[in-house]
Amino acid sequence: MISMSKLKKVLKKIYIKSTQKVAHLRKTVDCNSEWYGGEYAGFYVFPDILNEQSIVYSIGIGRDISFDTAIMDKHKCKVFAFDPTPKSIDWIKSQILPNNFHFNEFGIGPKTEDTVFYLPVNDEHISGSLEKHSNVAENRSVKVHIKSLKDIANHLGHKHIDVLKMDIEGSEYDIIESILNSDLIIDQILIEFHDRFFKDEIPKSVTSINKLREKGYEIFAVSDLYEEVSFIRKPALEQFSRA
């Protein structure tokens, strides 16, 4: 017999699928997937190609590192986390963190610069955005430092990233192209799309997904809310399949 919680999830997924434009978010490849993290901060990961040598970039932390602790616990890998949000920085400083968790007090952007970062309309909320949208206030902002992915990787000495997770409150759309043009090898890209923050007739994620597919990325898992979308680089999956 199906549990009540599982039934609610199924019904919610059916409702979203019937009322929102989500056809472009369907899976395009089949492989193993496992949910890492809590209900609101987690993502699906293809775990079979990860180990203690893996490099994970976790961009956008808020006050929830359940994804990061889950992937570190399972694979003993290093996580490099990034968030310029003042409340996130203060929260991280108050935590006892694992030795393989490395936090950086800056964000990611199309280019390296100091820029305006808009804070949430609701002061109880944590995460802000580089983009103006319905969840941030134009009259509440701070200056933050952001770096391009290429500059971040150069700074940290990385040429290959096993997993890049990005939850950056609507700033993801402008940044995806710079990530794909960085010449870095990234095996898995996990993105929370915030189409709900914008009033575009065509979801902004449509263009982003087309760009990712042009660069050889396919969707292997999607959350029940159709927001957390997990991509894998086809050569990485093919190499695993041949092993």
Keywords:
243 residues, alpha/beta, Rossmann fold, 7-stranded mixed beta sheet, 29% helix
Descriptive report:
The chain is of the alpha/beta class and 243 residues long. It has seven helices and twelve strands. A seven-stranded mixed sheet has the order 5-4-3-9-10-12-11, with helices on both faces. The longest helix has 16 residues, at 4-19. The protein is globular, with a radius of gyration of 17 Å.
Please describe the topology of this protein.
Layout: H1 4-19, E1 34-36, E2 43-45, E3 55-59, H2 66-75, E4 78-82, H3 86-93, E5 101-104, E6 107-108, E7 113-120, E8 136-147, H4 149-156, E9 160-166, H5 172-180, E10 185-192, H6 204-214, E11 217-222, E12 228-233, H7 234-242
Parallel strand pairs: 3-4, 3-9, 4-5, 6-8, 9-10
Antiparallel strand pairs: 1-2, 7-8, 10-12, 11-12
